[in-house]
Design brief:
- The protein has 8 helices and 8 strands; from the N terminus they run E-H-E-H-E-H-E-H-E-E-H-E-H-E-H-H.
- The chain has helices spanning 19-28, 51-57, 78-84, 99-108, 155-167, 185-191, 200-204, 210-219; strands spanning 6-9, 33-39, 64-70, 88-91, 112-117, 135-139, 173-177, 195-198.
- The protein has a single domain, classed as Alpha-Beta Barrel (TIM Barrel), CATH 3.20.20.
- By secondary structure, the chain is α/β, with parallel strands linked by helices.
- The two termini are 20 Å apart.
- Strands 1-8-7-6-5-4-3-2 form an 8-stranded parallel β-sheet.
Length: 220
């Protein structure tokens, strides 16, 4: 796992009427990844974007597309998202009948594999597959909507996962998503997270100064 902190702005908070330009602006502002939240109105109570939109915005940056699938069942859509330009495909263990099969489907598409844990999802759900994936995405809000308040009760989960990853010498990134701002960024980094997803803070703080907000999240 890289020691450098990476920032993955969530385009859920972007202006969808000019999404391509927003992605270009995030790239120029120093974003490491572009975080794409995919919701189906079934697994989570909201609808967002599908593979066609990702395909349309893919040419606007060479940065890594960090695609979080909050959809169920997930397997039948993996190939479509892989073909649309996703670089990392993250799914929820609750969205599949066979976690190992889903991991294999993503790897067969030559993409990096992430697994996401909702605030109440136990680490035991993924313990046996940690050596087969590239990233764990810990949700610090209930998935479904942007702009929610950070849940500090997930911090011990980050620390525990970090300890497991280090003790087993695994090359797994720890990503945190949900209500991340300038106040709690240090707390989650100190706990072991090395990728921070943020939407509202990046797009709205400091009069929408993307570069400043990305820099502050990385260095706070």
């Amino acid at each position: 796992m890289s020691g450098q902190i990476k920032i993955s702005p969530s385009i859920l908070s972007a202006d969808f009427s000019k999404l391509g330009m927003e992605v270009t602006a995030l790239d120029k502002a120093g974003a490491d990844y572009i975080h794409v939240d995919v919701m189906d109105g079934h697994f989570v109570p909201n609808l967002t974007i599908g593979p066609e939109i990702i395909k349309k915005i893919r040419p606007f940056t060479k940065k890594i597309f960090d695609v979080h699938l909050m959809i169920s069942p997930v397997d039948k859509y993996i190939e479509q998202f892989a073909n649309s330009g996703a670089d990392i495909i993250t799914f929820h263990p609750e969205a599949t009948d066979n976690t190992l099969k889903t991991i294999k489907l993503i790897k067969d598409c030559n993409k990096k594999v992430g697994i996401s844990l909702k605030p109440k999802s136990e680490i035991s759900l993924i313990h046996d597959v940690l050596d087969k994936i590239d990233l764990v995405l810990i949700m610090s809000v209930e998935p479904g909507f942007g702009g929610q308040k950070f849940m500090p009760e997930v911090v011990p989960k980050i620390k525990e996962l970090k300890k497991i990853i280090d003790n087993n010498k695994l090359n797994v990134d720890l990503e945190i998503d949900g209500g991340i701002n300038f106040v709690n960024a240090k707390q989650v980094k100190d706990a072991g997270a090395n990728i921070l997803v943020s939407g509202s803070t990046i797009f709205k703080e400091n009069n929408g100064d993307l570069e400043k907000n990305i820099r502050l999240l990385r260095t706070k």
